[in-house]
Amino acid sequence: MRLEGILLNGLYVFLVLLICYIIFILPTQWLKIERIRYPLNLNVRILQISDMHVERLRIRPAKIAAIIHDEKPDYIFITGDFTKYRKMLPKLEEYLRAMAICNVPIFCVLGNHDYQQKNVKDLVKLLRKYGLRLLRNESLHLEQFELIGIDDFDSDKSDIKAAFRAVDDRRTKLIITHDPNIVLHLNKEFDYLMAGHLHGKQFNIPFFFHIKNAGKLPRMGIYKGLHKQQYGAYYISKGIGQTGVNARLFVRSEVTMHYL
Question: Where does the record place the Calcineurin-like phosphoesterase domain (predicted)?
Answer without folding.
Answer: 45-200
